[in-house]
Every structure is written in structure tokens, then in C-alpha cells.
Amino acid sequence: MEILHVTDLKKTYGKGDTAVEALKGVDLSAEKGEFIAIVGTSGSGKSTLLHMLGGLDRPTSGTVSIDGKDIFTLEDEELTIFRRRKIGFVFQSFNLVPILSVYENIVLPIELDGNKPDKEFVDRIIDTLGLSGKINAYPNELSGGQQQRVAIARALAAAPQIILADEPTGNLDSKTSQDVMGLLKVMGERFSQTIIVITHNEEIAQMADRIIRIEDGLVVTKEVQAC
Known about the structure:
Elements: E1 2-13, E2 20-31, E3 35-39, H1 46-53, E4 61-66, E5 69-70, H2 76-86, E6 87-91, H3 102-112, H4 119-128, H5 144-157, E7 162-166, H6 174-190, E8 194-199, H7 202-205, E9 210-215, E10 218-224
């Protein structure tokens, strides 16, 4: 079942002679439970694309539909609520709150939405990610790999339909990167969530079901991985 559909997505920064076309008309789609890697050189537009897919920035033109809803028809407040409920984010910098424990960081987005965490579901995520012994620890007491696992748990905890990860292994060593991506893939499969990862790492990209290559603001190839 298609969960994401993007049509003729364009983004231009600036005007006139200083205008920069970051995206020049991107079309793509993703199925429920699919694991996609978007790759490209620095400045190719891949991070801009991810920000558009997550509703963090508005396009110059084009549409992004998630679960049949064109997200850019929503007002800013509506979009914020939609994003919090439907989309999980994992960033390179972890973005954990230093004064909150691991558990508090994980359930923070749920509580910000005025909801009570599903403790059984959250505990399953924590256990699967190997964080059971760290729930009362604080971010500065964790390794980089553990902090990224907490960020993944936080993204998964609200049961969003899509997880968007922007260079999630950029601050990790090679082995930890492979472990974290393997866990992210397993979690997506286990909870039927679509995962879209931006990466410049070809080894990481090879773990995906499909690789989308973007150059100069355009999709140049879509490669389905062999099983």
C-alpha cells in the first residue's frame, strides 16, 4: 500500500540572479513498510528533499501526500500536529534533551501531543534496541551509538507511519553504524513503518530495499535491491 507520494516537487531559495534551485521537480513514492535510501553528493538536494517530505520546510511548488493527505494544504499548526503524529525523525546530531532521562526523552513527543505513552509498546521498542538497562541514564552517560538508539526509539515510540533519518550514522564509527542501521531496518519491519534514510555512505545504502539517487535536485536513478 502506498503511504507516500511526491509529485513535481520544487524548491528555490532566493530570487533573481541569486536564486538557487535545490529541487527541480522530484517525483517519488514509497510503500508501507518499505526501507528506502536516498543518496547523492553534498549539495545534491537530498537533505532539502527530506525536509520537504517531513513538512519541515514548504516547497516552492509540488505536492507531498502522506497517507492520502497533501500535507502542504495544512496550516502551520495543523502541519505541526500532523507531523508529530505521522512522522518520526532521526538526525545525525541525536537532539536528545540533556536534562531528561533516556525514558523521558523517548516519550517526550507523545507527551507534548497531550497523550499518554503506550508503556507496553514503548517497552518493546526499548527492549528491542537494547536500552532496557539505560532507561534512567542521561544522554551524557551514553555512548554515541546508545544515544542514536535512543533517538530511534523516540522516533518509533509514537508509532508514526514514516521514519525520516538524515545521515543518522554520520557521527558513528563503521561497526556502530552498521548495527544502528540494522536495528532501524528491523524495527521498521517489525512495526510496519516506512523508513527513508538520507546517506552518503554506500555501504549503509546497500541495506535498503531500494536506493534513490539524486543529483542537482533531480532523481537520476531508482534501484531496487536484490533480495
